[in-house]
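Team,

Forwarding the record for the chain on the shared tracking sheet. I've put the sequence and predicted structure together so nobody has to dig through attachments.
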Amino acid sequence: LLLNKGKFGGEQIISEQSINQLLEIQTTPDKIKYTPKITLGENYALGSWVLDYDANGKGTVFSCPGFNGTWAVIDYCRGYAYFILPKSTNDDDKYIGNKIVKDQIDQQIQSTDCK
């Protein structure tokens, strides 16, 4: 639903306005009192961390690392999403594993609109 602006199966389930509000940056790193090491320095939207931005400062890549090692990513710039269920719950392993997966996908899905 998030990747498709609220649509599923060609039907509008959640309004595009609601999706845009979910993805709007809500706070900046200087306002965040605690964050896991893997999201240190990132801005926060409603329920996800903002990992990359367009030229206007609007989020283009969102992530939601879970406490049990899961990792979800939506990349609007390249038009894909993925979800990882790793064996390890170590924060460093999660971060490194996600970075490897994202880098590999980004090499396969090029976009001139991305930074």
